Amino acid sequence: MTASPTPSKSQRVYDHLLEGVVGGRLVPGQNLNIGIIASETGVSMIPVREALRRLQSEGVIIVEHHRGARVAEVGPNAYRDVMQTQAVLEALAVSLSAPHLTLDELDRARELNRDMDAAHRDGDFHRYNEGSLEFHRILQSACPNRYLRETLERGQLRIAAVRAAVIGYSADIAERLSQEHTELLDRIAAGAVPAEIERLMREHRDGTSAHDADGLRALAGK
After folding, report:
1. Do 61 and 104 fall within a single domain?
2. What is the CATH number for 145?
3. What pTM does this model have?
4. Which CATH number fits the domain that encloses residue 15?
5. Is 62 within 8 Å of 72 (Cβ atoms)?
6. For residues 32 and 66, is the Cβ–Cβ distance under 8 A?
7. Residue 57 or residue 211, greater confidence
């Protein structure tokens, strides 16, 4: 059996920082110290700078001359714009991906949905957030349009970063989202036509953006 390749140093730093943002350890507006990051990950400053440039290109962090790097902040209006764009593009991507998803991939998505339910019951919104990110990645994964997948990934990371700062979903909203996930997976498994998958995905994304924007406004008002 061939061993998996060892991630590059810059990839290790990238994964470390992205996990911190999505998991809520690094919050919007927080300054990032290159020396501290290098010490935490056991690398020199060069891989750290490479990882920061990559995250900057994905909109996860901001790097400014003389001010250094910080986790990107997204206000309610900007988040609304991201979500509107994401809803349209992701609905298309999932409709293109659906016919090519395997039973194993659908089973993994169902498992993630169940784990998100458990995470919500446990009050672990960061675990819920990570599960949601992976769930949506799976549904897009078989999309044959590589440019569309790459564009969506950048949007997904910005959404995940914002959601890490939002307190969480009420039980009613979490239950509705879980039901929407289940319906979407059931229709994909049943071979629903692309137009139906696109409609369900669009409605799902549109239904969460208002809540997240309200959460951002509440945080900004504190």
Report:
1. no
2. 1.20.120.530
3. 0.75
4. 1.10.10.10
5. yes
6. no
7. 57
Do 22 and 161 touch, CB atoms closer than 8 A?
yes
How is residue 33 written in tokens?
Answer: 């110290």
Asked, for residue 4, whether it belongs to a domain, the answer is no
pLDDT in tens, 141-176: 999 999 999 888 878 877 777 776 665 677 888 899
Question: Exposure pattern of 43-79 as b/e (b: 16+ CB <10 Å)?
Answer: beeebbbbbbebbeebebbbeeeeeebbbbbbebeeb
Please report, for residues 141, 183, 185, the alpha-carbon distance to residue 200 in angstroms, rounded to integers and kept in the order given: 17, 8, 10
The CA distances from residue 201 to 13, 18, 88, in Å, are 33, 25, 9
- Residue-wise DSSP of 45-64: HHHHHHHHHHHHHTTSEEEE
Which structural domain range is residue 53 located in?
9-71
pLDDT digits (tens, 9 = 90+) for 84-141: 888 999 999 999 999 999 999 999 999 999 999 999 999 888 888 889 989 999 999 9
For residue 111, the cross-strand partners are: none
